[in-house]
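Subject: Interface between my chains keeps coming out wrong

I've been trying for a while to get a sensible model of this assembly. When I model each chain on its own everything looks fine, but I need the whole thing in one frame so I can look at the contacts. Pasting all components below, labels as-is. Any help appreciated, I'm running out of ideas.
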Amino acid sequence: MKIDRRSFLSLGIGAAAGTALSPLPWKITDDLSIWSQNWPWTPVPQDGEATYVNSVCTLCPGGCGISVRKIDDRAVKIEGMKGFPINDGGICILGLSGLQLLYGPTRIASPLKRTGKRGEGAFQAVSWKQAISEVVDKLSSLRKEGKPHTVAGISGEREGTTGRLFKRFLTAYGSPNFMHVPSAADASEQVLYLMHGQGTTLGMDLENADYILSFSAGLLDGWGSPVRMFKANSRLKDKKGKLVQIEPRLSSTAAKADKWLPITPGAEGALALGLAHVIIAESLHNREFIENYTSGFEAFANYVRNGFSPDIVAQITGIPKAGIVSLAREFAGASRPVAICGRGQGDTPGALCEAVAVHALNALVGNINRTGGVWSVAQPVDFNWSQVWPDEPARMGLARKRIDGAGGPLLPQSLLNRFPQAVNGKNPYEVQALLVSNANPLYTMRDVESVKKAFDRIGFIVSFSSYMDETAQYSDLILPNHHYLERYEVVEGIKGMTSPFIGMAKPVVKPLYNTRHTADVIIELASELKGTVAAAFPWASYEACLKQTLGYKVNALAEDGYWMDGGYMPPDWSNAFKTPSGKFEFNLSPFKHKVYTHPEGDPSIFPLVLIPYDSLRLANDQIGNAPFMTKTVADTVLQKSDAVVEINPETGKQLRLAEGSLAVLKTPKKTVKVAVHLSQGVGPGIVAVPRGLGHLGNDRYLAGKGVNVNDLIGPVDDVVSGLDAAWGIRASLAKS
Amino acid sequence: MSTVEEKVKESSEHAASAPAKAASEKSGGEDRNAGAGGPITLFFILGLAASLVVGWVVFPKLLYSQKSQPFDFNHALHMEEVDNGCESCHFFREDGSFSGSPRLAQCVACHEDVQGVSEDEKIFVENYVVEDREVPWLVYSKQPDCVFFSHAAHVKGAGMDCAVCHGPIGESDHLKVYEENRISGYSRDIWGKNISGIKRNSWDRMKMDDCAECHMETTGRTSSVQTKKDGCFVCHK
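Reply #2:
Try treating it as a single job with all components included. I did that and got this:
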């Protein structure tokens, strides 16, 4: 038998025929098709029982109720909670993307200790026991040396139980240096103190107003509780009410307003006084209120009569005289008008005189504590914690001057904006240790470079951050807090709420990592420090503290997520004011100096004016953007990794800058590279820069995109309040 | 026609003519191909036989890996103990979704401690109940994620019995060996035990065609013009 090539061919043909007659090819084809549709890297949603957990969002101070949908133990979607007094089912883009922050790669998984140089990012994981004992050792030795005042604390919360516990800790320990991150709420607190004689919070009954005059407040750009503002705006539109936006830039709020008045940046206070001039001159003010319940009106009338005639104000603001007069008539003629201020999202306090001028407008039309007006709102919780009894070393420390110079009868309780200057310059003493909770000063504070310099002079920095943000990266020890969806937190002091209100955030998922609630860590630190410091914290845990503090409200908070005095009505005019005269005071002290805060910089070197602007799509507080949000940012804000600045086409023509061209933006603080967008939405001579970009920390989705506008602007102290009054800075722009 | 099919056709023609050629050889007729026809046929048959054996016998054995469940489970025994049949453990949640394999929380109600003498129950209590760990059951009827199947629509809506698709598993004393397809990762029960795909019972296979067949019989809908089946997006979401 001869075996040749044909035999092999025959074998192959036979094999092919047999294979075709077997199930092999058909089965393999089928299996491969299933395999190729189920690649291992394709995410497959978990299957399981769907449940909802109600909580309160603490990503911004807005205090919205959220319903988190879970499949078994995994949170899969965040929705707005229906029936919640602030947002009633609505949610903003940041709240919606919170799960990316929970499950994202930027979380800190355990306590970390710095191993490399500061800011290098080299850390090693340590146990909680070691981390806490390192802090306790440092704090004990400073107290033994008689230097408890050299410890400073920065907290992201003005209010809230964790912030209060932090402040209490420093007091019991012996440091006067508790500072909170400033916001427009600080300015309004001062306004109420000066004009109402009490430090309550300022409520805005925008839902019932029929004419909203906004002095650069970005109602639809994240001001206050963003969802509540959107709903209030819809209501205003339904009622055929009017929103007038006074702002240098065509923001989303301005675009959706009934009228947009582009104003010279920083001139809002002058315009408010100009409007007051017209209202008084034409006797359009509320006589009943002014004559019976106010004091100092004549002096105020004289002040605006002499210095703020429409002619003068037209020059300062760039708004024509006729426009000022008609605006004043419209405002005073409306049945429930309200004037509000706080630039953009209201994260910066601004000049006190501006806030006072705007509030004076409200007083002129008599809408104080009235439906559709501004209300002074009582505190929702009486923090009946036992008094702190400091021991001798603590008393010595507390007797020292605050490092930021705050406090006293007329100054705010905290002036974080002055902290870097104080540490870098003439300071009464060296700061030895800094504790940072719920804040990211190395990103959010103005003139970041000087903040960094100040940090370099502080020997021991502890961060309580949940994320590897700029400040955490620059600290010596990180004691990571639970993520906001993993912890209890009491939310109070919500901007603009018209009823006493507290919200309660509660754990939606079990902690994913080896983290601890900052309040629990504070209680533990106190107990380790022993003596009077431990005695100031009679609670075993944060939860025990909450139960004791909130009393009967705990049940409502646990069930509904909030407690609200729903029937609250502000006191009527005869009882509303706690000033020496018992009346509303037109206080002129903020106007002693100047009503217009000049931006830093020499106009001959820096011919342009830089203003930052806020957008709902860019988180700019201590929480950075979630990747989903950055995806929604337009090319006119971020062009690949270049920040885009807005300039008027006329300015572009002068500087020979075309749409999209790259330019060098220079301010007295820093020089950066940007791309240019020509827009009629800003006036000539203005450069508008988005806030919320230019992160260095967190993850690769956030870092290295655009520039941080806080690098470019320095703080300007308000002469009266000491709060940061800067609204921008001088700048120059040239083709790169 | 593809090359493979051409070859198949050629070879089958060849195979058909081979016996005729062999017969002519036997009759002593002079043939130019005499002596070569034998081996060619033999090799053809060898190839054919070998590939048939590979395709029908070896391949199914290689395709599936045998996996055992974390421990054995007696459905029949449990059915005697419960009041509500399959739904006692495989229940519908309040929102209408189907719970699938029971979670630890349901089992713990009875099995907080070891009840009987079975070794499997001991494994369950010690390794899972005490450790508070979910049992990683290998699910015979698990479908790819792109397949959307509503138990509520079939069981509650159409009143179908569980056994129509799942077979008489409720009467079984033991869990069978889980045969995992090495390529797709799913159970052999989806394609069916029979490698040629022939089924005797409605629960023998769980492929798309089986769904379609039943849908066609009961609803008569052919909403897709291309496939003559019910619309793709009914199941593929």
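Reply #3:
Confirming on my end. Residues 128-144 of chain A form the longest helix (17 residues).
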